[in-house]
Amino acid sequence: MMQASRNNLWLSKLTKIDLYQLIEEVKAGNSDAIAKATLFVAHESFGLWHNRARAKLCRHFKNHPPARENCDQMIDAVIQRLIDGRFSEQFIDQLSMAIRLDPKRMHAAAIAALTSEKAYVRRYAEQVIHILNSSSKAQLH
Which of 27, 61, 110, 111 could bond 128 through an S-S bridge, CB–CB 3.0 to 4.6 Å? Predict the structure, then answer.
């Protein structure tokens, strides 16, 4: 795990300008940028504009999913953030993407998060379950 962190250190150093450029390249369909962006979404970083960029990328990937292995990497990170309660503003965009890309795994994660000692984690878990229940009812009609 330590090796992976060292290999991805560059992600923590991305500037707001770098992130703007990355987002534009992702929207243009650049496969290298998509790979970097999925790493960025899954990686923990707290630089200027990082949460905003993560939210923008998640909104894009929600409607334009990358390769399955990239999706799984991002979803794993979102699930871990939910369960650990390790998230900040604009996390709802990450949840929304993960719900769209893998509703079954997100349902299981939300069920697990309902047992958290942290009230805010339970609230987010309840919100995920509500969204999933609402969307499944809508699909029945």
Answer: 110
